[in-house]
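Attaching the record inline, Q. Sequence:
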Amino acid sequence: MSYQALARMWRPRRFADVVGQDHVVNALRNALQQDRVHHAFLFSGTRGVGKTTLARILAKAVNCEQGQQAEPCGECGTCQSVDEGRFIDLIEIDAASRTRVDDTREILDNVQYAPTQGRYKIYLIDEVHMLSGHSFNALLKTLEEPPPHVKFLLATTDPQKLPATILSRCLQFNLRLLSAQEIGGQLEVIVRSEDLSFDETGLAILSRAADGSMRDGLSLLDQSIAFGGGSVTGDEVRDMLGMIESHHVDAILLALAGNDGSALIDTVASMAERPVDYLSALDELLTVLHNVSLFQVLPEAVAAKQADSSLVRELASVLGKEDVQLYYQIGLLGKRDLPLAPDPASGFEMTLLRMLTFSPEGESGVGGDAAESRTKKSVSSSGAPSTGVAREVQKKKSASSKVITSTPTPRAQAPSDAADNAHPTTSSLSDPAVWATFVEDSAFTGVTRELAMNLCPESYDAKSQVLTLSLMPGLASMRSPSRQKSLEKKLEAFCGYSVRLEIAEDGKVSGETPAMVQVRREQEEKDQAFRTLMDDPAVQGLVSAFDATAVPESVTPGKQQRKSE
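Structure, as predicted:
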């Protein structure tokens, strides 16, 4: 006997065997028990969720030799004939291949004749949305008032394409997508019944890859059994689907947590040594990031989903909530942009570089404030890193500190000036010039710098040690608790005492922000450069000889001029 696919072998034969469609099953059972079976049903939903299966079970239930009841007996001749596809009163029609109006009229010509075997003649029209407009028109009257011995069961994946006149004549049941847990549970039942070796990771991957379709899940299970020689394991399933290996996922997220660009690129290079579906790779990363975020907010929910792992727990303790949300958003955008990339590998790599470059938790580069804050989160009460990820971040922080220490000071300052400006007085903190000096000395980068450049001090309360600043209008999106903490930390080092910041967003800025000062100075430099240019005798000669006109906007200060200034 030839092999029968799992999707056919394990097709449900009773309502009780149907997975994930309780809202439809309960309605059909009640209709059968109360003898209120409508003459026309429409089952809609994506592929492989049980539309045709439910229609066949309903056909058995109304024609069962044991009488109409909530469940077909499955043992009588009628039930077995339906299961074997030889019940003469169940007419299955593929509308995709019989779209013409002549085909529909041929069907309708036989509607008037009584059933041969059962109580009802059942017309099961699959992919009914493929019928032509004339076919729908021919079907309308019969569908509305069929003979008492006729039932119509329609199935479609695209109910929007059906005319409203057809929809109004049917009881409509929308079959939902199955969850990964529901598909995984059924797959486990099957592999145990088939006495196959498996692991939970492999079944979980297959469940997610099924994308809500039980039939797709069973087909993938068939494929994985053949690929693994009778076993279903996580590594084999990943190889079969061209998915990123779990250790690559771990390495990528560890590199992001440690702000380690080199390790990130090395991991991508090692992935390229074997066929990889980069879209699936992004899906894997997003799944782990989702579990990390869920663990940070609701740890019990992660345990309920059976998504808890040592990596998830470690990353949840090391990564900030903002980091995880940002990485997830960048990953989603990367999936959208991946088809536009020169090749999938470079698109995937660029997505990871975006995650590495943009961080909501300090923008001081590798091993800067972000790495420091992450390390602090993972330090136990004894002062030692509590996880492997934290240890890696600590290594990066130490190495980066050495580099930063060896970097010369960007702006030379006389010792006397440094002594005078090391600790500004409390009365001078509200001076915009002092804030501008602080921003310049702190060498902020990224969004944190843009935020600091567009703030202007308004007042300082020495008693509460609160410095109130106003933010330029339209820039409220730059604010975040982590960036404000970064500013407060640098301001404490600048002043020598703790200062708490309060940022107002009412759009009222009384003084000059550092950004305004920068624009003003640049304009003054341009004006001075233009005056110097026009005072040059050679330029004056050209203007006189050719009746030329100088354009001020075209003059920019030269490098030599800026050095001299």
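Confidence is low (pLDDT under 50) at residues 361-387, 399-422, 559-565. The domain at 421-512 is CATH 3.30.300.150 (GMP Synthetase; Chain A, domain 3).

More tomorrow.
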